[in-house]
Fold these 4 entries.
Entry 1:
Amino acid sequence: IGDKNSTVTKHVVVRNCVIHDFPGCGIGATTSDYITVENNVVYNNSWFCMFACSGISYINPLDSDSETGYKMFILNNLVYNNHCKIPWVSTSDFSLSDGNGIILDVNQEADQRGLNKNAGPYKGRTLVANNVSINNGGSGIHSFQADHVDIVNNTAYWNGRKFPKNNYAEIYTNRSYDNRLFNNIMVARAGAYCTLKPIDNTVEYSHNILCGGTSYKGPSDIQVSDAGGVKLTRDGAIADMHLLETSPARAAGTAADFVPKTDMDGVERSGVIDCGAYQFVKK
């Protein structure tokens, strides 16, 4: 959606699609504003591309107005098995990069990248909520040099498959400011990372569930030995990340004005807030 030679592409919704087996990015947006990617299944993308693509990627957004509230949304998507098999052409040693489930990529310096000399940094906020990200090559979800991002009530399981001992954590921020990571569930494989230490105190971690691997732990985050999902598996086609009644993620979340009012299934979040993409419902 959009490119560096166009004017700002805006007010686009990608909803209820199944997107798979593209050699490059599954869903991508650049030089754009007011983009919503919602209720999609995105898998097996980015395998055969030399440009470090990912399942869902927003890069270099540009403001079409002066609004500073939410304008970019990634909501209620199942994203799995996206990874890169071809090294990134821009690396000095021609090595692998990215292949993330979801990435918010570079919104700090549009004017420095030749996109729009008068644009300046992107001022709108981005909401990433109620997504399930499984077994992707890079991170489950992360922001890189992307400010004003909220990553809330997502579930990430056994990502970083191409970088098991590297710093592609389940959900994290990298060189980003004014980010909030709330109410997420992160389950890492052995030797990998749930999340990483933020750059400074403008990045806030709160009430996340961390399971497996090693992690930076925010003051309100909870380390557990079992996340308590119905069917935790690397196969995104059959995984079931709904919560068991015994899950430590139940009632472990916190309420805030940016926490989504419903979960991935449309179940209302009221009163007690569970962590992850799903609110527990007793059968």
Entry 2:
Amino acid sequence: IYIVGGFVRDLLLERPVLDFDIVVEGDAIALATSLQKKFGGKLNSHKRFGTAKWQIDHLTFPTSVDLGFSPVDLPDSLDLISARTEFYEFPSALPQVEPSSIKFDLHRRDFSINTLALRLDGRHFGDLYDFWGGLEDLNSGVIRVLHSLSFIDDPTRLLRAVRFEQRFSFHIEKRTQQLMEEAHDLIKHVSGDRLRHEINLLLLEKDPRPGLLRLNEYDLLSQIHPSL
């Protein structure tokens, strides 16, 4: 069992941690179901992707169980995900999913700084896993995709690269910039819902203006709509 991605990144950057993504090398839905049976709350699962969201009910959480901490310190929910690999049939398509190891699960993520994982089980508790150079890029302030088809697989990563670059005052590395320039017209294939979600996240940043200007530099705003 691992906690991955944004949690580990922000923990190492000493920033507030808001994401709680738990990856399981095994059946995440089965684990989430057992947690819900033992501790209550609600469960929503998605069998196709092997994911489950456990909504924690702090009011009904059993006080008889000694966890070593107070239930009020728990988040409102936990996302549990089976380790998997993904294959995309065409740009912006929903992925085809197969079970996999933590190493290849992390490789499907957007940028190297989001590929770090902390192991949570047994004697391995607290071990940091860095298969794809994420720690070096985090220390160097670099935004880097993991492979040349990253933006083709998911064009919303074009917007996300700029958001992370501006949030952390990092810089997008040269090869990733080239891939962005080659893929910028793929934004047209992304649904309005997904585009709106990414733009909303950018607008929720402390100061969204630099990010919007940077999107314009990459000719991404006009790809979303000509009037932008």
Entry 3:
Amino acid sequence: MKSVAIIGAGITGLTAAFYLKRKGFPVTVYEGSDRVGGVIQSIRKDGYLAEFGPNTLLDTSPKIGQLVLDAGLQSRRLDPDPKAEARYVVRYGRPIEMPAKPLGFFTTELFTLKAKLAVLREPFVKPRRDGVEESIAQFVVRRFNQEFLDHAIDALVAGIYAGDPYKLSVTHAFPKLKALEDNYGSMIKGQIFGARERKKRGEVAKDRAPKFSFDEGLQVLPDTLASQLGDAVKLNSPVTALMQIADGWRVTSSSGETDHSAVIFCGTAKALAELELIGAPSTGSASSETRNEPSRRSALQAFSEIRYPPVASVVLGFRRDDVAHSCQGFGMLIPKIEGFKILGTIFSSSLFPNRAPTGHHTLTSYIGGERYPELASLPPERLYDVVCEDLRVLLGVRGRPTFQHSVFYPHAIPQYNVGYGRFKELMNQVEASSPGFFIAGHFREGISLSDSIVSGINIADRVEKHLTSGQPVRA
């Protein structure tokens, strides 16, 4: 029976393993740490439920809902409180609610008249057709203006990537925005005229996609998948080398060597760069695999150049009476130009029930990223002080937290910076030169939780076709 090795028990690896097992293939998931879920972490303590990675899952594709159904989690799914739809962006030193409807854009105090006129002018801005790759900052200033970048897009980029809009590629970090210009000549025209096409594909834009979680947090999903995989998940089993053999791959991990018909790598770019990928042994003169060994090794090492800025997630609990702001909504994003240290805050206990004891708020803030990378590694007590100071000004918080916990991610989110296409091409080249070896996950097909799940489902389909046809299947 043909078996598959999956390296990494984050959500991509677990999803791929779950569906390959359902297709009838024996799987083994090798995880270097002592837990599953990767950046997904949900902790229940002192009446609080704290999320330290993503806080919600976006229902952007029918594949997301199908996974929930297939995993038997439909009854545990939680939709957000309808009253928590409000989103805030900080301007003038305070959170201002974003307009919920298009007409509200023209009455909001978030933007000056000049910015509002720039939006009206956008459909008449000529699209760029010279093939030059732009940063998201260049793209936005060209199609709108500097104010729109400084007070809106910068905050959005911090909330999604913890990144720098002057470095992130619009082509790779925000491909759907680039596609709107390419296909319709304008973002606004594309939003209007592309809606029907997206509906036909069953896709939902991320800014409009329904959000959800589970009764005990997002950790429920990886824990459930791991439970159904059972002994196939090997914790504390880092993979150090892969050797191509006649009918597949020999996986070397801390528990020994095991042969598999195919391997899916679902770890980080840093871990891929450190992986030893060994070609098939030669039986005489140097084989093509042996000759290609240095180029394949250098290709893997190149993935160490993918930037992962550090981020700290800080979850604080407060008595409601100690918070002046209602905190009714999803949360607030903060542009760099406003001068605060935190990147943004999610109003976690307003989103879902049972995230805080009665009469309390749970606030999840993020700090660090490309904006202030040095702050992410501060000692926990110092982090709490920095976050509390910003929340005091922005939300009117007073007193000490009734709950506090933080997690430091030294390599948090891959940055799809200008020039990122070379890494995607390298992944294609590595797969082409290594039949039966596949790469999936957040540094290939998008950084969101929903992107990672869809990546896991798609790679399971590719591996199935490879194993049944015996031919390489391109991404």
Entry 4:
Amino acid sequence: MTKYHHGNLRAALIDAGLEIIEEKGVRALTLRELASRVGVSRMAPYRHFQDKETLLAAICESGFAQFADSLETARDAAGPAFAARLSAMAIAYVRFAVEHRAYYEAMFSVKRESEVASRSFQVLRETIEAGQESGEVRGGDSTALARVVWAVVHGISTLNLNFFTQLPTPVG
């Protein structure tokens, strides 16, 4: 349980929100329970978040930033070969879902348009475009190809979220 001790209340509320999502799911998240968990008045969360939606938006922004960072890190560490880069990014995607379950659920619970949320897809699209330029990927609409890859890896992540206990290591 996250308790607030005169530090950064906004961060404490986000952390407590993630705990609630981890335990009960996004739908169970309420600002009332959040305040109770953190040990502040019922009105205190409203100083930082207008409502549940603005809290979820903040959680999503943080989650998508970490998610995009993990995809970029995996891609960049995999070396120059497209197959190794794509494999490393797919594993990073699945690993993020497993290791950051509450973020993952919040991020994909409703459609949220933001620059931060778009960055992770942009990382994938740029990787596919680099593969096209090097001749390792067929030409064509890089956005459409990225959507197909995203859908496959997202499906694997979502379907297997409860079953992955040991993740494979990246190829390369």
